Prior knowledge:
- The protein has 422 residues and is mostly helical.
- It is built from 16 helices and ten strands.
Amino acid sequence: MNRYTKRCRGTLWAMACTVLFAGCDLFEVVNPGPIIDDALNEEAAGKTVLIGVVADVEVALDAMAWLGGPASTDLNADATQPWLQDAGEGRLTVTNAESSWNPMQLARWGGAAGIARLNETQSDAASNQFLTAAYMWAGWANRILGDNVCIAVFGGEDKDGDGIADPGDVHEANMHYTRALERFEAARTRAQSTGHDSIAVASTAGMAQANLILGNYSAAQSLAAQIPDDFMWVAHRSDNSGREWNSVWQFTHENQKQITVWQMYNDSIGPDTDPRVPWRDMNQTSGGGVKPFLRQLKYTDRADDYPLAKGHEMRLIEAEVMLRMGDRQGAIDRINHVRERVGVPPVSAATDSEAWLALDRERNFELWLEARRLKDNARFAAENLSPWAVAFMQNRDYCFPPSLAECSANPNVTGNPYCSQG
């Protein structure tokens, strides 16, 4: 029997989950295999539609966790596959983009399509729990895109009525955060009005993430403050099938040694210094035969979940806003609050530059291997905030471009500068 299950983590989340769905059964379904599309237009199929939305977002996050790892300061590549080695050397090319662009776009499209279908099929659409959750997961889909892509492409509607979907229009990548914010806001409003507490909390965390990148710092700080330290919302992995495995585990375990911790920052501090970034020296060379193989141990099973949002990240959002507003000591205090909870020594900063470096490294540790690092590398380097990020991003691509198919088939994208990346 194959099941997708959203796990309950943390005291507050577990309590909210119990109140809301009696053990998280909203996200649990027996996999029936292929389903005829028309069957999803029945009201009774609402839960199945939602599970499809969730599954596509989880696959997209998985793809970006293992691809974004070597593209950032999360991991180093020593791979036998050229496309993975390209990412490790900072070459994020159009020809290699099918593995990144396609699953993320499918998740975004699936979220929008799921919302539309549930609005049409659920008689209680105004308060329907499946629709509320679909709005939230559509928010995650857009946030994942915003964290990783160079441009946003929205569209696919049949505007001229010829029965063929029109090409998507091109926007700045940050439009994904704007859309994520809209979806999270809709989910939170619906959840608060219907008592779906866990979705309200998770959507609030997503809103904090989106507002931070959009530069809405006061809003980001206020929203982050509403999230408790022990909160966690995850994208589930399982051992049901290869599509559901944790691919970071797969590329570093199961006789594969394609990506290594070697020369990453957590390599320099040792394997046991910080429990958030564990690794082990395997006394072997990596898959390409060049670099030492230091195996990541954050994910040690193919069914290990990926965090989408955490309370500790919210404290670091507060720290970043404080630092941007000139409160260096307040920022360091927030960082040390997280470090105390983790069980590692405090840090200090005598200058703003030292404080930014401390924040950059703390976000690296806290969000390690969660498909978040490339955006931090890019934004801290672009603003010249962290010398570590600036040095790393020299001569590297800052984002994943559209796929070759998108560049070739969509006239609105053809000719875009990012279509020549790589």
